[in-house]
Every structure is written in structure tokens, then in C-alpha cells.
Write a structure and sequence with these properties.
Layout (H helix, E strand, L loop, with lengths): L4 H5 L5 E4 L8 H8 L5 E3 L3 E2 H6 L1 H7 L9 E6 L3 H11 L5 E6 L4 H5 L10 H14 L5 E7 L4 H14 L4 E4 L12 H10 L4 E4 L5 H11 L3 E4 L1 H5 L12 H13 L4 H11 L6 H9 L3 H12 L20 H8 L5 H62 L6 E5 L2 E5 L1 H60 L1
Parallel strand pairs: 1-2, 1-9, 2-4, 3-4, 4-5, 5-6, 6-7, 7-8, 8-9
Antiparallel strand pairs: 10-11
Helix pairs in contact: 2-12, 5-7, 7-8, 8-9, 17-18
GO cellular component, one term: prefoldin complex
InterPro entries: Aldolase_TIM (IPR013785), DUS-like_FMN-bd (IPR035587), PFD_beta-like (IPR002777), Prefoldin (IPR009053)
GO biological process, one term: mRNA processing
């Protein structure tokens, strides 16, 4: 039975929401956050065209269980047909669909997805209207956006969606050009005052305290977290950091439901970041098997898999593909074309997979360099503070006072002015090293962002390549 999300958003309390996150907000993670007071979950963004045409894409990108509710499936689409068809397919298995109009990644913009949709309010209006006409309420149709530099355009866009029949809006209060800068709270308030629709606010939600603050300041109905809940799945329950019980829950959930190792591993890396030393984080990052990860957790936290449970049976979209099978074949004029297409698709999957792994390796190396630079900055800060203290002590001395410096096991008498000059030189050198290290940290921070963007793009390319390969496989 469909949960009425609009009615849920009318409750006089902060409704908590897990954001759509590529690779991460899949079924196992949704099961985890629901244990820690998360009211609504989104799927990762799914490319609607692939979802409609490929059974393999559907099985890869969407699965659920009866307890996985309220659930909203988010799609990327650049036309009415793809989104409406995807909505009809997924409607029996979730409580609503959401159109991604907020993804700022270059690959998405090039495909006409994400924030590119903000340029086409009439198209988005048609998409919302079509789904509203084809799928009955209380099933919801919503849109997730970013704010534009011109707030008037943002307001016009939201008011257009309201007239089209959107159930609610999610607003990430950053512009498409922004990454981790503070959100535009004033713009969020303007949007709130301009529409009557329920509003979910997104951005800078790192703990329950600032979630409550944003909820009150924005006067919204719900609060969505992405990076915050990824690092701490218990965020909405009030835990400042991930509790060990949450890590235990993740181990148990992934033992019962089929979970790819990369997904299992990456979530643990995020969850345990604040629990581990740099050395241990690097070690955990490098592990390649579930068994080695479990051994690591047992040694460090005394966390062990619980006694075996029955496997959880996932629910997948079950549809009649007879109507789309014909459409799949129309682009192939001969058997020769088909086999060429099949071989190219398989090769494409392999090539993209290689690029993805290479990019992961590069990203891990940049992270190592970044944390190394942070440690060096900390050391230099300590050295500078020590020399500042020495300088203050020397400034209090008189010229006739004795000054000694330690060389090996011996104390050697030193001229006061010479001692002051030596300290000044050390401070100058340390300051220059600090400046150079700060510049390096800034450069590495930008590199991390660039690698994250590339990883998301390659992940989407990999999904699309898999979809094409599955299309050729289904024709065989």
C-alpha cells in the first residue's frame, strides 16, 4: 500500500530524508538509516531511458523490500516519455517519483539531465503533468532543484511546478556552480514564501543540531541530508558520530542482502573515518575482500558478524517487455549490425570498468597526499608556536643575561642577539613552508573534487554501457 508522503509532510515535526546518492542510497543503506529515525528515503538517481529499456539496468539500479517505505525513486530524464514510462514501471514498488533537476555534474548537463532541466521549465511542467495524469494519488511526483543565481527565475520555476501538480519540492540551496560553500539560506526562504507546496530543504546538514536549525530558519516541512548521513547514518537519531552499533547493523544487513563489495566497503570507510587513525584509515581503504574487512573490524572494535540470518529476498520491477522489445530492435538493420553492436557494447563495459578502477586508484592517492599535507601543516603549526614562545622569552631577557642552546647532550652559551636572529630565521622558514603547504592542500582539495566528479561521470557511463550490453544480450 502506497504511503501518502504529502500527508506525512504535513505532520507538525521535522520530517527527515535520506538524499539520492549515486552508488550509495541503495537498498542496504536505506535499511540502515531507517533504523535511525530517517522518515523518507530516495533511491540513487537512475537514468530513465536505460531503466525503461533494459531489464539489467532495472535490476541493477532498483530493488526494494516491503519494509523499505516511504520510498521515492529518482530519475534523470530529458523528455516526457522516458520519465512517464519509468514512473509507471516503478509505481507499484514505491511511493513516489522525483525528477532530478539539481545534478551539476558535467556528464549530466551534456546529456540534458540535472541542472540543465532548469533551463526548460515548460518541459519539466509537461513531465510533472503527464505523470500526475497517468499515476493516481497518493503516489507523488516531485522535483529536486538547485537555486539559480537569479532568484526570480528560481521562484518562477517553482511556481510553474506548483501549477503543474507537483506534490512537493526539494531545494538544494546552492547554485549549480557551487560545491561546498555555505548554502544560500535567504534564497531558500524566498522560495518557501513563494509556493504553498511542502518543501524539503537540502544542504549543509551534518548533524541533528544544524538540521533542526535549518528546519526552523527555512520554515520547511522536511530536511534532507547527503554527505552528513553518509558519514553518520545515525545522524537523525542525534548521535554526534557513527556509533559502533550502527557499524554492527551494517555488517548484519549486508550479510542478509546481496551487496557489492565496493558498496559494502565504501560505506564502512565513510562511517569509521572519525574513529580511526590516519594509518588505520589507509589500511582499511586498501582492503580488497569482505573477509579482510571483517577481520579488521573485529581487531579494532570487537565487531563480529551476528549469527547467520535468512537471506532477505529483494523485490525487483516485474514488467512485460513485449511492447518495448520491438522498439529495441528498430535500430538494427541486419545480423551483422547486431553482432557488431553486441561486441562493441561488451568492450565498452570492460573499457569503462578499467577507467573507473584507474580513477579510483588516482583518487585514493590524492587522498593520501592530502592527509599527508594536513599532517605536515599540523607539525609546522606546532613548530611555529614553539618558536613564537621562545621569541617571547628571549624578548624578556636583557643583553647581559646568559642564553644557552642545547646541542646534543651539551648546553652551549649563545649571544642573545644571535639567538633572536636564529629564532627569527626559523620562524621565517616555517612560515614559508606553511604557506607552501596551505597552497598544496588547496590544490589537492580541488583535485579531490575533480576526481569525485570524474568518478560519478564514469559510474554513469558504466551503467549506460551495461544497459547497452544488456540490450544486445536480450536480442540474442
Amino acid at each position: 500500500m502506497t504511503v501518502d508522503i504529502v500527508e506525512l509532510l504535513k505532520e507538525p515535526r521535522m520530517i527527515t530524508v535520506c538524499a539520492p546518492m549515486v552508488r550509495y542510497s541503495k537498498l542496504p543503506f536505506r535499511m540502515l538509516v531507517r533504523r535511525y529515525e530517517c522518515d523518507i528515503c530516495f533511491t540513487p538517481m537512475i537514468v530513465a531511458n536505460s531503466f525503461v529499456k533494459s531489464a539489467k539496468a532495472r535490476d541493477s539500479e532498483f530493488s526494494t523490500i516491503e519494509e523499505d517505505t516511504p520510498l521515492i525513486a529518482q530519475f534523470a530524464a530529458n523528455n516526457v516519455a522516458d520519465f512517464a514510462n519509468a514512473a509507471e514501471i516503478v509505481a507499484p514498488y514505491c511511493d513516489g517519483v522525483d525528477l532530478n533537476s539539481g545534478c551539476p555534474q558535467r556528464w549530466a548537463i551534456n546529456e540534458g539531465y540535472g541542472v540543465d532541466m532548469l533551463k526548460h521549465p515548460e518541459l519539466v511542467k509537461d513531465i510533472v503533468s503527464q505523470v500526475r495524469n497517468r499515476v493516481s494519488q497518493p503516489f507523488t511526483v516531485s522535483v529536486k532543484i538547485r537555486v539559480l543565481k537569479d532568484i526570480r527565475r528560481t521562484v518562477d520555476f517553482c511556481q510553474t511546478l506548483e501549477k503543474a501538480g507537483a506534490s512537493f519540492l526539494t531545494v538544494h540551496a546552492r547554485t549549480p556552480e557551487m560545491r561546498y560553500e555555505p548554502i544560500h539560506l535567504d534564497d531558500l526562504k524566498i522560495v518557501r514564501d513563494s509556493v504553498q507546496l511542502p518543501l524539503i530543504a537540502n544542504g549543509d546538514v551534518k548533524n541533528l543540531k544544524n538540521a533542526q536549525k535549518l528546519y526552523e530558519e527555512a520554515n520547511c516541512e522536511g530536511i534532507m541530508s547527503a554527505r552528513g548521513i553518509l558519514a553518520n547514518p545515525s545522524l537523525f537519531s542525534g548521535c554526534a558520530t557513527t556509533p559502533l552499533q550502527c557499524v554492527q547493523d551494517w555488517i548484519d544487513i549486508t550479510a542478509r542482502i546481496d551487496t557489492h563489495f565496493l558498496c559494502f566497503h565504501h560505506h564502512l570507510v565513510f562511517m569509521t573515518e572519525k574513529m580511526l587513525s590516519k594509518k588505520d584509515r589507509v589500511y582499511l581503504n586498501a582492503l580488497k575482500t569482505r573477509e579482510s574487512v571483517l577481520e579488521f573490524l573485529g581487531n579494532h572494535f570487537d565487531i563480529k558478524p551476528s549469527p547467520s540470518y535468512e537471506t532477505i529476498e529483494q523485490i525487483f520491477c516485474d514488467i512485460d517487455e513485449s511492447n518495448i522489445a520491438k522498439e529495441r530492435r528498430t535500430n538494427l538493420d541486419s545480423a551483422d549490425q547486431f553482432w557488431r553492436y553486441s561486441l562493441l557494447s561488451t568492450k565498452m563495459v570492460e573499457e569503462v570498468q578499467k577507467k573507473l578502477q584507474a580513477e579510483i586508484d588516482k583518487f585514493n592517492q590524492v587522498q593520501k597526499d592530502y592527509h599527508k599535507a594536513l599532517r605536515k601543516r599540523q607539525q609546522l603549526d606546532g613548530q611555529l608556536n614553539e618558536n613564537i614562545s621562545v621569541k617571547k622569552e628571549l624578548d624578556l631577557l636583557k643583553s647581559e643575561d646568559d642564553v644557552f642552546k642545547l646541542i646534543g647532550p651539551c648546553l652551549i652559551k649563545q649571544d642573545l642577539e644571535e639567538a633572536k636572529q636564529n629564532v627569527a630565521k626559523r620562524m621565517e622558514y616555517i612560515s614559508s613552508e606553511l604557506k607552501r603547504t596551505e597552497e598544496l592542500i588547496g590544490t589537492l582539495d580541488k583535485k579531490q573534487d575533480a576526481h569525485r566528479d570524474t568518478l560519478e561521470k564514469l559510474q554513469q557511463m558504466f551503467q549506460q554501457a551495461q544497459a547497452k550490453a544488456s540490450l544486445s544480450g536480450s536480442k540474442a
